[in-house]
Amino acid sequence: MLAFAKADGIGINLEIKNYPTDDEDYDPTPAFANRVMDVVLESGIPARQVIIQSFTPANLDVAKA
Questions:
Q1: Alpha carbons 18 and 22: distance in angstroms, whole number
Q2: According to the model, what pLDDT value does residue 49 have?
Q3: Per residue in 47-58, pLDDT tens?
Q4: How many other CB atoms are there within 10 angstroms of residue 18's CB atom?
Q5: pTM assigned to the model
Q6: Are 30 and 59 in contact (CB under 8 A)?
Q7: Other Cβ atoms within 10 Å of 26 Cβ, number
Q8: How many Cα atoms sit within 13 Å of 24 on the Cβ side?
């Protein structure tokens, strides 16, 4: 999706969610947000095309950094 958005110059709204579910692998640390942002940065999509949102302030801190 990031490659498609980058190529077409369209914006995306990406929400980072890492809330508890029935999954035993839930990790409340910002590790998931770090991985998401690694993928965003590796894609080379311009920052002006991406809105990052999350209800977890630590995730937004990771995105801002």
A1: 12
A2: 97
A3: 999 999 998 888
A4: 19
A5: 0.80
A6: yes
A7: 11
A8: 0
Non-local CB neighbours of 3 within 8 Å, separated by 6+ positions: 43
Side chain identity at 63, as an amino acid letter? A
Q: Please write the tens of the pLDDT for every residue from 20-49.
A: 666 666 666 788 899 999 999 999 999 999
At position 5, the amino acid (one-letter code) is: A
* Count of Cβ atoms closer than 10 Å to residue 14 Cβ: 18
Q: Which residues contact 50 (CB under 8 A, 6 or more apart)?
A: 5, 11, 12, 14, 40
Residue with tokens 């590790």: 31
DSSP string, 27-54: --STHHHHHHHHHHHHHT--GGGEEEE-
Q: How far is CA 37 from CA 5, 9, 31, 59, in A?
A: 16, 19, 10, 10
